[in-house]
Amino acid sequence: MADVDNLNGLVENVAKGDKPALKTLYNLMSGRLFSVLLRMVRQRDVAEDLLQDVFVTVWRKAHQFDVRRGNAEVWLFSITRRKAIDRLRISYRETVGTFEDVASVERETDIYVGIGNTENYISVRKCLKELRPDVHRALQLCYVFGLTHEELAEEMKVPVGTAKSWVRRGLAQLKESLSIDERT
Questions:
Q1: How many other C-beta atoms can be found within 10 angstroms of the C-beta atom of residue 76?
Q2: What's the whole-number mean pLDDT along residues 96-103?
Q3: Where exactly are the structural domains of the chain?
Q4: Domain named RNA polymerase sigma factor 70 region 4 type: which ranges (predicted)?
Q5: Which residue among 81, 94, 127, 164 has the highest number of C-beta atoms inside a 10 angstrom radius?
Q6: CB of 79 within 8 A of CB of 57?
Q7: Fold classification of 115-184 (topology level)
Q8: Quick check: 99 pLDDT over 70?
């Protein structure tokens, strides 16, 4: 696993137009990112195309990376996940699917990449299971599948305000559960 500070520095250098930094970043992260893409889209050629799109996005948007908002590894996985989700949305809309259909992808995909160590992963999973099903699903659709609040409301057939409050409530409950977990 690449050192977080090293990744942060590489992305900052990419933002300055440093092509060797992009190549180094690619060499360090492409295997892991490709693995996530392949598990999500389940087609090697599509995953390869998406990986290229990820690094084009990194090149174009590296200036938007802010280490105060998160580390580079999480940022890279977020871009990767969004690229795959966008592709899945297109594919499922073409076949008249819904996000219920996409739920099976979540079960087989490590959606918690970037959380850190196994202990954090287990804590987050445990806390998510304690949430009400509608709140858990709202968080999943927003943060795993990248839905906006408006899309979430449409998918769950509730007003936008309700969707927003579920997300807010879920995040607050997760934060509280995780802080209690850390103290025990």
A1: 27
A2: 50
A3: 1-107, 115-184
A4: 123-174
A5: 81
A6: yes
A7: Arc Repressor Mutant, subunit A (1.10.10)
A8: no
